[in-house]
């Protein structure tokens, strides 16, 4: 019987701990500013969820909604103002951005110390160099979840399937920092199934419904499913065929209720960390 790694339960633990830490703070509460450009319905849901999560733990949150035709220069100007605002400890630019705006230029304009998404090149460098910094929320949450369940990572063969800048690459860097032996697979990997079968820790972030099947998984492996997809029946499923894999692995994250809730919980953690760092300076 596999252990179900519930991100939903762990996110509750993280939020409760944040509430306690906020109540002990001297001075202002942590503040998160979210910039949303345009009116993407999914973005509106995510931003609403972030705002609600901030309120629950006693953070200040400010959502700045801008029309889709806002120029890049105006967005960079706004980021500059928020960088100088002492009540704002974290700045998040909700993706996707309209095509005329460079995600890289906007991400690089956020002060690294307020970059709670962990996308700024300085934070990416700090992550790979093993230094302190703010690191992407989803992979940070996964490492937190594994620690929470006392799953040892040291010396384990970890395979990360997917190499995006948001999940796959930072996940690999964090597992390396946990002393795993890390392999990163992607769409050009030869014999992906063989690679998967060698993994003690298998982390899948691809975006293909139930692509990882039972015979791809090493018996006793820990399986973390980042994928969030709709299958042909419209049901939300991960990248792993959960029911098939369940009794082969030793632990697995469900979809939904696995990795999903960790992302916002660790956005809050990053905002708290940014605030703590700013008041220590
Ligand atoms: P991207 O589309 O940016 O990256 C997907 C990666 O998967 C790429 O590196 C791609 O390889 C690789 N890939 C695609 N097809 C295959 C294949 N057949 N075999 C092996 N590798 C393959 O996605 P994201 O990293 O942003 O997201 C991945 C999934 O995680 C999505 O379902 C997304 O919805 C979900 N997600 C969930 C989050 C959460 O909070 N739970 C947060 C973020 C994402 P290549 O580089 O060669 O193209």
Tell me about this structure.
With 281 residues, the chain is of the alpha/beta class. It folds into two domains: 28-111, Leucine Dehydrogenase, chain A, domain 1 (Rossmann fold, 3-Layer(aba) Sandwich), CATH 3.40.50; 137-260, Rossmann fold, CATH 3.40.50. Helix content is 41%, strand content 16%. It contains ten helices and eleven strands. The chain has helices spanning 7-23, 41-57, 72-83, 103-109, 121-129, 137-148, 168-177, 192-197, 242-245, 260-280; strands spanning 3-4, 31-37, 60-66, 90-93, 157-161, 181-185, 201-204, 222-225, 229-230, 236-237, 251-252. The strands form three sheets. Strands 1-11-8-7-5-6 form a six-stranded parallel β-sheet. A three-stranded parallel β-sheet has the order 3-2-4, with helices on both faces. A two-stranded antiparallel ribbon has the order 9-10. Helix 7 links the parallel strand 5 (157-161) and strand 6 (181-185). It starts with a strand and ends with a helix. Bound molecules: NADPH dihydro-nicotinamide-adenine-dinucleotide phosphate (NDP).
């Amino acid at each position: 019987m596999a252990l179900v790694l519930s991100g939903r339960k762990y996110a509750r633990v993280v939020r409760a701990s944040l509430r306690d830490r906020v109540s002990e703070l001297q001075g202002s509460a942590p503040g998160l500013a979210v910039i949303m450009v345009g009116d993407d319905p999914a973005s509106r849901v995510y931003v609403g969820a972030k705002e609600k999560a901030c309120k629950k733990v006693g953070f200040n949150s400010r959502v700045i909604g801008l029309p889709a035709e806002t120029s890049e220069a105006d967005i960079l100007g706004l980021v500059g103002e928020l960088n100088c605002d002492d009540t704002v400890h974290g700045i998040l630019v909700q993706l996707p951005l309209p095509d005329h705006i460079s995600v890289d230029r906007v991400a690089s304009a956020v002060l690294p110390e307020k970059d709670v998404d962990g996308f700024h090149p300085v934070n990416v460098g700090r992550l790979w160099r093993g230094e302190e910094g703010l690191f992407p929320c989803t992979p940070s949450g996964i490492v937190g979840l594994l620690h929470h369940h006392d799953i040892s990572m040291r010396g384990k063969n970890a395979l990360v399937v997917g190499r995006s800048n948001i999940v796959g690459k930072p996940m690999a860097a964090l597992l390396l920092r946990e002393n795993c032996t890390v392999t990163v697979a992607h769409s050009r990997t030869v014999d992906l199934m063989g690679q998967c079968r060698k993994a003690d820790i298998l982390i899948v972030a691809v975006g293909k419904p139930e692509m990882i099947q039972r015979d791809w998984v090493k018996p006793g492996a820990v399986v973390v499913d980042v994928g969030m997809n709709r299958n042909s029946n419209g049901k939300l499923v991960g990248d792993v065929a959960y029911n098939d894999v369940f009794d082969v692995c030793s632990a697995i994250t469900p979809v939904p209720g696995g990795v999903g809730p960790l992302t916002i919980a660790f956005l809050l953690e990053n905002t708290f960390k940014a605030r703590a760092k700013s008041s220590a300076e």
